[in-house]
Every structure is written in structure tokens, then in C-alpha cells.
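Fold these two proteins, one after the other.
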Amino acid sequence: MSNALASAAMNRLVDATLIAADNALRTLLAPHRAARPTPQPPAELAAQPAALSDDERHLSGALMRVNHVGEICAQALYTGQACAARLARGEPAERERTARHLEAAAQDETDHLAWCQQRLDELGARRSLLCPLWYAGAFAIGLAAGLAGRGVSLGFVVETERQVEAHLDGHLDRLPPQDHASRAIVQQMKEDEIRHARDALHAGGVELPAPVRWAMRAAAKVMTTVAHRI
């Protein structure tokens, strides 16, 4: 029996490692393809496009680069948490259910990643030069959150998405009013993040301790500040 359990654990480890490696390569190197169409501004705004000044284009590019990095981190976080869920002890069905919940949310984040990359290209802006670093750090955080247990892992999703929602609200305030294309993308991203937080809470996410929430905000502040420039 012990040999069978050890073999099953090893198989889970191999599977989780392969899934994590595949996701990292696809996120960092492969073209990003969205399952949903890119959000568009309302017809009355799309019919009256307004040119952006050089300064406005630079600001929009910097903000969308930050959002692109956020989606890189989201892919890494969810992958790390899903890997931890599959490696955790407990009923196989529950482990798989948690992993699939996280992977379903990650699919929306894949759409966000593709939309942000498309908008960066349209603005003539580049992605962050530190994407591999952001991915590695976020994966480690996600793995740690996942190993803390299902409730904590889902609670981490809730808090992350709440912070992202606030972050996107700030970008809606800062984006040039006439940059309707970027604003439509950010608005849809915000609506998706609200849904992710609600779903994770209903699935059993627990409230994280205040020091953890503060640390998450501090880490996010470092990321957004650096990604805005690099």
C-alpha cells in the first residue's frame, strides 16, 4: 500500500511539474490567443475615434504594460495554486475540483493577457523587460498560498482580485478620456476580476490576516511601479 501511495504521489508531482512548465513557456514565449473577442467601446464612441497625443500614447502604453505584467503574474499565481492543489493531501476529487476552479479563472486571465498585448502593439508600446522575473516570483507566491490549504488558497484569490479591481479602477481614472479602446479592455477586465473574487469566496475562500493583505499590497506596489518604467 505504501508503495502505491508513493507512486501516486510521484505521478502527481510529475504531472504538476509538466503542467507548470508548459504554462510558463506558453505565457512567456507563445503568442497569446483570447477565447473571447477583444472588448470594444460603445458604438457611439468607436464611431468618433480621437487621436492621442504623444504624451497620452506614452501614458496609455505604460498603464497597459502594467496591466500586461499583472496578467503574467495572474497566470503564474493560478498555475502555482493549481499545482499545489494537485499535490495536496486529501480526496482526489476535491483536489481536482480546486485545481479546475483555478484553471477556469486562469482562462479569463489568458484573454486579458491577449487583449493587453494587442493594445500594447496598437499603441507601439513594449511589454515589460522583466516578465520572466515577475512570473517566477508570482508562481512561488501562488505555490505557497496553495500549500497553505484550500480555504487559504481561495482566500488568496479573493484578496488578489479585490486588489486588482481597485488597481483597475485607478487606471480607469488615469487613462486618457479619449483612449476608448484601452478603457473598454480595462473595464471588462475589472468585471471579470469581480466575478473571480465572488466565485472564490463562494467556493470556500477565507479572509486572510491583515499582515498578509498588507504584504500583498506592498508587493503589488513594487511591481506596478517598476513595470510602469521597465
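Now the second one:
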Amino acid sequence: MKSITYVLFLVFCQVIAAHNILLGPYGKQCFFETLKKNDELAVSFQVGSRNPHNSEQYTVDFHVISPNDQVLLKRIDLDHGDEKIKAATNGKYTYCFSNEKTSRVDLDVSFNIHGVVYVDVNDPKSDTLDYAIQRLSSLTNDVKDEQGYLVIRERTHRNTAESTNSRVKWWSMFQILVVAANSMFQIYYLKRFFEVKSVV
């Protein structure tokens, strides 16, 4: 019974692991995870736009702060990332997504939190069914995060391709109009050039 409850808890955790936020202009959003020493925290994220007709590649700043307010990791102008840190001490580790330098209003950040809980190999609990289930859950989350990342990348690239196709279509129509106008002008000019004018 305890194992079934644990599996259901892990499935519930897996469902709530994916996050999606909208960063406002000059905005910043922070989240935190409570880690123990030697635990690993990994954050994978992708920046896009909620407007399906927007092909611009947006970027955000990302940083991680330790429990004693030291900046452990700082990345600037990323459109996607897969960042990982290892906890040096127990405590609350804060990670933030920042749009503080721009006024873009539709920055859509999708991110997943995953990591590795440190297990001492000399600990007798490491050879239990609970540990095996936890490890399997961690691997399943990694696969799920990778699939979510690929879906978002595909959406961003599809928006770029559709925008490019639209621009090529309108440019081609403009070229056709220019060629047609040029042809009409040449016909008119040549017709007038070969007209015979009689003087009365």
C-alpha cells in the first residue's frame, strides 16, 4: 500500500512539473526549490510568443541564487536553455526568468524542473523498491521534459517558416506586378516609337 501511494504521489508530481508563464514588459518572475546538500537541480526552458503569427525569436535572462543570496548561475539573452546546478548546502535555491531590459509584452516561457536527489551508495535504503521507483520516475521525467522541449521548438520553428512563406508569397506577387507594369510600359513606348506622324 505504501508503494502504491508513493507511485501515485510521483505521478502527481510529474503532472505538475511543467510550467508556463507569461513575462510582462520589464518583468521578472522567480521560483524556488528546497534542496539538500549534493542534490542537483536542472531547469530546461524555451522562450516563445503566444502570437502564432510572430516569428521573432525572443530571449530572457536566467539566474539562480543560493540560500545565502549569492548568484550561482547567470545567463543573459537565452532563447532556450538546459541549466543545472549542484547544491553545496541545504536550503532554498531561487531561479528567476527576467525580461527587465525590454518592453515585449508576449514573452511566453515554458520550463520544466527536474533533478537528481543525492543518494549515498552506502545507505541501505538505496537498494529498496522505493529508490528504484524514484529513479524510474526521474528518467521518465527526463524523457517527458525532452519531448516538451521539442514540441515548443517545433512550434517556434513552424511560426518562423510560416512567416517566411508569407513574406515570399507577397514578394513574389509584388515582382509579378512590377514585371507586368514594366511590360505594359514597354509595349506602350514601342508602339508610340514606331507610330508614323504626318505633318499637314
